[in-house]
What we know:
This protein is mainly α.
Amino acid sequence: MHEALYENIPGGARWRYVWGSTLVFTFTIQVITGLFLWTAYSPSTTTAWESVYYIQHHMQYGWLVRGLHHFSAQAMTVLLALHLMQVVIDGAYKAPREINFWLGLILMQIVLGLGLTGYLLPWDQKGYYATQVSTEIMGATPVVGPQLQNLAQGGSQYGHHTLTRFFAMHAGVLPATLIAFLALHIAVFRRHGITVTNPDRAPATAFWPDQVLKDGIACLAVLATVLALTIFKGAELSAPADPSEAYSAARPEWYFLFLFQFLRFGWVEHQGLAFGAIYVPGALMAVLVAMPILGRWRAGHAFNVAFLMLMMLGIVGLTALALKNDSEDPDFLAAVHQAHEDSVRVVELAARPEGIPLEGAVSLMRSDPKSQGPRLFARNCAPCHRYDGHDGTGRKITRKDAIVEEVIERQKDGTDKKVKKIVGYKPPVEELATATDLGNFGSSEWIKAVITNFKGTFSALENVKDKEGKLAESSKRFLEGDMSGWSASHAQLWRVKENEQALSDLVAFLHSQGRRKGAPGISDDASKRGRQIFETGKIPVGAFETNCIDCHSLQPIDEDKLLGEVGSGPTLTNYAGKNWLREFLQNPGHEKFYGSKNAMPAFGERLTEKELDLLVRWMVGDYE
């Protein structure tokens, strides 16, 4: 005890000496919390996410243990940077302390390795795709790249064995290596003592009690910060990893963002992945390793301090630039929003009485209309339609027009020839929709808009042009058809105050057909009055020139009587409900829908029964 506590500190205790102790403290937190997490974690592709979900939402104080582990790992990275700067500024890397400085750099690499391997273990979308990038970087290593990547991945494919190997590294190899090097680091440090730039600034003291007090307060501040982040922010768990789904919201942890941003620069991409991810970081690391040699001269020490400050400034600047670029990228923000929605949704699904099936939580997402519907809409419907102005997943649909110029190219025969070549791209512009926005399809607002302003509701069809730049014939037939004329000719009637209730009743009747969530019942008074208007065309002021049943057939729900025959307009039986929408998507050109006026492709053969069911249930809101 005397040996541990009564180390001599020339110049007295100082706050700048606390960083080493805080690093040991945070690593201790990692070890303790890691052991508790280990008791509930199951490293396989069908149980990893599920076990972390159990820890986060069911295990007693599991959220607290996981949060402490997660945020203390991030705090350790910050403390490493501060400790490195303090050592270099104070010249504590100079002889005879070169070996200890190099041991510290090895410890830094181990800590970063722990952060990298731990990121994958939840086996969620964010960790899965972010870590896949790191294994690809390993593959870019000169000479041994492919072998190194195979070793890390556990084979040629990224999957189950990648997870088990990363777990073995994270929970076994790297912590054991860190403990061994940490013991050696502390032993060498105690042998050489503290490096003090000005030992005469204050009387020498012992480690106990003054420096212990400062170290204890600093550790308490770290713990308070980590606890605050755990309580008020919490460790994130995104949706379970699904290799079949693209995930554009993936980013490395914030302390690797500087490298991510560096690799995004055009000139770095041109040089290749190895240049940006291996050679440049390797060169920077080589300078750090050489610091004890350079620091033998006064000019060398000044260079070391300046180099480290510039490097840290560059890291902070690149990190800030990455955050700024992401905050201004609408596609990335939409992807982040979608990822958050998925993470909330999968927890809702897993919390059902049925729990998580044996196939794993990813099967919950794959069979969930609320999760898959937007993706199916984006892939199949968004090329023409929009959903509240976006593609269903929150992304705007844009295009980059190529800039084509005539350039001179030298031919093999030595002659010059003018050829057209893409020399750049214009800034992205929003792609115009060529069909109506379906964000509120089937709602009372939708039905009212179709009745009162048919042409305006389907105005996106005006963006469909023929080869001569004129309105396409299919759009013309639709926009100038019977319903468009009927809507325009009756628009004045709906503006009469006495007819407001009649319009509301007619909308209620048509809305009730789909039996969607929030729709009025078919036997409600408003629906009954609306049915009378649909059949007779009688309203308080004025009258319909053509009744609804002259063009539309409709089978009132739970009744046998058919209102009208199949006419020029689509049948409104179960309008906008699951059955109607499914049949319509399968074959919109059927005679009971749009017949010869239809220009929409049939999705009966493009989508499987399951995909069609997921899309339809999402559009009608049947996913609770």
